Amino acid sequence: MKDYFSLICDRQSCRDYADRPIEKEILFKCVEAAGLAPSARNCQPWRFTIVNRPDLCKRIAACAQEEGFNQFTDHCPAFIVVQPEIGSATAEKWHRFDLGLAVMQLCLAAEDLGAATCIMGSIGEEHLVKTLGLSPDAPPVVVVAIGYAATPEHRPKIRKQAGDYVTYLG
Ligand SMILES: Cc1cc2nc3c(=O)[nH]c(=O)nc-3n(C[C@H](O)[C@H](O)[C@H](O)COP(=O)(O)O)c2cc1C
Whole-structure pTM over 0.85, yes or no? Predict the structure, then answer.
């Protein structure tokens, strides 16, 4: 088991998946980890649709490529579609924030279980709603591509230095 800092350093967006299916149990563990995330007033304003069927995955990949990105999705074995659960006013004010927390937990759980992910915001939202018969009132915010990485390599992280984004008042 990796320690927390190794986990967050090793997680990276995977755009090259092994030609190998991903187990239903792993996918469920990942969404269960997402469901443990904190949320405003514990509203848990999320809904996850796990797509792990080759014919449907092809159609999700077509949605994700609609805006000219995400060609790698042709070779991704599964997707997790993330929607807000519309209901309370609190959930609506904070739902994107809460969804972000949940998705991060999902991605770190996947990393811990040896799987790889890529969060996608370019998802052809309308097409996706029609393809999966989702409620147009709660369109998906992101889709997470998930599978096993084709190669074990870790890219160096390209990030700002803490000094560029932290104000320390000590
Ligand atoms: C909200 C959000 C939307 C993103 N959308 C896409 C996307 O559509 N396609 C893609 O390949 N990567 C997408 N990414 C991945 C980012 O490009 C990536 O997280 C960033 O470059 C940092 O790289 P790393 O995840 O490998 O650390 C998205 C990430 C986030 C958080």
Answer: yes
